[in-house]
Amino acid sequence: MATSESWSDQFQGKRKKMREWHQIVCLDQRLADLTMRKCRKGTQVLVEGRLRATLVIDGSGCDITILELSKPIRRNARNPRARKS
């Protein structure tokens, strides 16, 4: 999954854009199947939940921060008030 953000640079007045890529891990097989069927490239989804950060040190001694979304609530991005299970 990718998230994008764009803004105008205050000093140069140019449009800036940043994209971050995220790995999706579904621990529930039913949710994994639903995600594979419904989410395709370009599909907008709204994912809510509690963020939990974990600091891991890799083999070369570099710090890696892993953000996990626990207890997610999946909603349709076009109608965020409509909850889906």
Automatic annotation (TrEMBL):
Any one GO molecular function term? DNA binding
Q: Which InterPro entries match?
A: NA-bd_OB-fold (IPR012340), Primosome_PriB/ssb (IPR000424)
Keywords from the named record: DNA-binding
The answer to whether keyword DNA-binding applies is yes
Query: Carries keyword DNA-binding?
Result: yes
Q: Which Pfam families match?
A: SSB
Protein name from the UniProt record? Single-stranded DNA-binding protein
